């Protein structure tokens, strides 16, 4: 439960980066956010989202070792090694976005000051800029795509090896036990990556604005809301 506890702590911060301001705007007549507050939200939203991808990959590795190499598991997944993996996730997440966010914040925003979204996302912000920034956009989208693709490929590889090992188990009870161990994690991975991949890997200009808002709402608020329920039902 070490990784699950850290994952739950991360999701509290992930939701906190968007929901308080969103609720304030819903309840108030003046729906506003300061320039610095917008980019601070932008930074934490994507940094914490990156950490969530990394945590899901680590949890897939944890399950792979537990099922495919149960005898080696205690010697590999020591407390020190688990702590190092968690620290690395937080470090990569927080260090990955300061430079892109800084360069985007330096763009001249001389268009409308109305953000057509309920949070400060990349495409709504770029729509307000009066100067094109193809390099900044390319770097940002490339970074997001790399994080998403590398982590989901690692998760898929881990589960491919895991399933191959599970199907070699002779007893049906043993296979059922192994599947029950992975079911909750697979549900969380499917829910999170299914929406995020559509948003940040597929071309954003091909997705209607309303659909972008719905997808963002699902992976930024609904997914963290459902995750505790999914893990509780599994337990």
Automatic annotation (TrEMBL):
Superkingdom, taxonomy of origin: Eukaryota
Membrane topology: Multi-pass membrane protein
GO cellular component: plasma membrane
UniProt keyword list: Cell membrane, Disulfide bond, G-protein coupled receptor, Glycoprotein, Membrane, Olfaction, Receptor, Sensory transduction, Transducer, Transmembrane, Transmembrane helix
GO molecular function, one term: G protein-coupled receptor activity
Ranges in coiled-coil conformation: none
Principal subcellular localisation of the protein: membrane
Keyword RNA-binding recorded: no
Transmembrane domains' residue ranges: 42-61, 81-99, 146-167, 179-202, 214-233
Domain G-protein coupled receptors family 1 profile per the UniProt entry, residue ranges: 1-231
Stored InterPro entries: GPCR_Rhodpsn, GPCR_Rhodpsn_7TM, Olfact_rcpt, Olfactory_GPCR1
Chaperone listed as a keyword: no
Location(s) in or outside the cell: Cell membrane
Function: Putative odorant or sperm cell receptor.
PANTHER family listed in its UniProt record: G-PROTEIN COUPLED RECEPTOR, OLFACTORY RECEPTOR 11H4
Protein name: Olfactory receptor family 11
Species: Vampyrodes caraccioli (Great stripe-faced bat)
Top-level taxonomy: Eukaryota, Metazoa, Chordata, Craniata, Vertebrata
């Amino acid at each position: 439960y070490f990784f699950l506890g850290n994952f739950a702590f991360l999701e509290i911060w992930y939701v906190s980066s968007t929901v308080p301001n969103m609720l304030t705007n819903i309840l108030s007549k003046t729906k506003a956010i300061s320039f610095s507050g917008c980019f601070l939200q932008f930074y934490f939203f994507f940094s914490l989202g990156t950490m969530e991808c990394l945590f899901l990959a680590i949890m897939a590795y944890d399950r792979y070792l537990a099922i495919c190499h149960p005898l080696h598991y205690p010697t590999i997944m020591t407390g020190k090694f688990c702590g190092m993996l968690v620290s690395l996730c937080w470090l990569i997440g927080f260090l990955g976005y300061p430079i892109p966010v800084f360069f985007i914040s330096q763009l001249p925003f001389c268009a409308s000051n109305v953000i057509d979204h309920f949070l400060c996302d990349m495409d709504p912000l770029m729509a307000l800029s009066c100067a094109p920034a193809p390099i900044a956009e390319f770097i940002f989208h490339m970074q997001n795509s790399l994080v998403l693709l590398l982590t989901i490929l690692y998760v898929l590889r881990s589960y491919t090896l895991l399933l191959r090992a599970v199907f070699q188990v002779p007893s049906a009870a043993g296979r059922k036990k192994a599947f029950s161990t992975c079911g909750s994690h697979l549900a969380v991975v499917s829910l999170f990556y299914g929406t995020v991949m559509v948003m940040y890997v597929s071309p954003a200009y091909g997705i209607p604005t309303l659909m972008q808002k719905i997808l963002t709402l699902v992976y930024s608020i609904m997914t963290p809301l459902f995750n505790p329920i999914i893990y509780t039902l599994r337990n």
